[in-house]
Amino acid sequence: MNLGKLTRIDLRDCWKHEAFDFTSWLAEPENIELLSDEVGIGIQVTQTEASVGRFNVDILAEEETTGRRIIIENQLEMTDHGHLGQIITYAAGLEAEFIIWIVRDVKEEHLQAIDWLNEHTDEQINFFLVTIELWQIENSLPAPKFNVISRPNEWKRSVRTSAQDGDLTDTKTKQLEFWQQFKEYVTQNHPKLKLRTPRPQHWFSVAIGRSDSHIALIVDSRENKVRCELYISDSKELYKTLLSYREEIEKGLDVKEPIEWMELPGKKASRIRVIRGFSFVDVSTWESAFEWLAEMTLRFKRVFAKDWERLSNRLMSGEESTNDVPLM
């Protein structure tokens, strides 16, 4: 068996200048997605070289499902005190809730500093220390690899913050445990599916690349059910457009359970959902619920993101009429 030799490439051989080369490269959708996959949050770039007083943060972004602000600071060198101070200054100036510091190498004192910040801030503030590497096999193109060196401890911080707020009930603790295990299950079995940080609540949001809707996963501890739904926050027009393609959409989803179409008159939101029963108190039933939720999420993402985007693009280009374009 012939095997190639894996070689690490100097970052400066690929990106000579941080702002002009690396930041521009990272801001491209396919590259920021690599970072999103590694840190576990959906990142949508809004601006590069965003102004913060007399300074500029490399990338200003937001979390896809919530709009919470993200700053990304790039340093293709060893960590230093100057950049540590910069990310704190940028976070304060822009009221960011996610701070991502991308570096070549990490000094121990700066790793300790990021760990300390994650330990002593509440769950609204999240620091990620990430290294970037370039690897090559023989004469292949260099391939980037992100590694998270420090991240928030989601379980510990969520429990601590909720306890301080006085609302960490037994049910909320169990909900947090459910979503934490769900995220671990998805990471092991469906690694391409990106999930956000678990919270002690009955819902879990998944981005689909649209600002007007997202996938909501629900665990109902009272009725012992799990749900997967397309949650349309405030667009009856979108709901009615989707409803006009109901037959194609239901065929594309191809689920055994009944699909409920809920316009919710009098309310801003609308829903398209499927439901399955399970036992919230019986942990042995959780894994089957995890698999069902993961499978439904993948189907909803395919139909309401990829297929719908393809249909919309073809209609806007005038290639075919609405009656001639299949959703799938």
Question: What does it look like?
Answer:
With 328 residues, the protein is an alpha+beta fold. It has helices spanning 11-14, 18-26, 29-39, 81-94, 108-120, 154-165, 170-189, 236-243, 246-253, 286-317; strands at residues 6-9, 43-52, 55-63, 69-78, 98-105, 126-137, 143-150, 203-206, 213-220, 225-232, 260-262, 270-277. The strands form two sheets. Strands 1, 2, 3, 4, 5, 6 and 7 form a seven-stranded mixed β-sheet that branches. The chain starts with 5 loop residues before the first strand and ends in an 11-residue tail after the last helix.
Q: Shape, please?
A: globular
Radius of gyration: 22 Å
- The SSE string, one letter per element, is EHHHEEEHEHEEHHEEEHHEEH
Mean pLDDT: 87
The assembly state of the depicted protein chains is single chain
Helix share bin: 25-40%
Q: What would CATH call the architecture of the largest domain?
A: 2-Layer Sandwich
Provide the CATH top-level class of the largest domain. Answer: Alpha Beta
Alpha-carbon distance between the two ends: 42 Å
Strand content: 25-35%
CATH topology group of the largest domain: Yope Regulator, Chain: A
How many beta strands in the DSSP annotation? 12
Largest β-sheet summary: 7 strands, mixed
Domain module tally: 2
Residue runs with pLDDT of under 50 for 5 or more positions:
321-326
Counting helices, strands and paired strands, the structural category is: alpha+beta
| Number of DSSP helical runs | 10
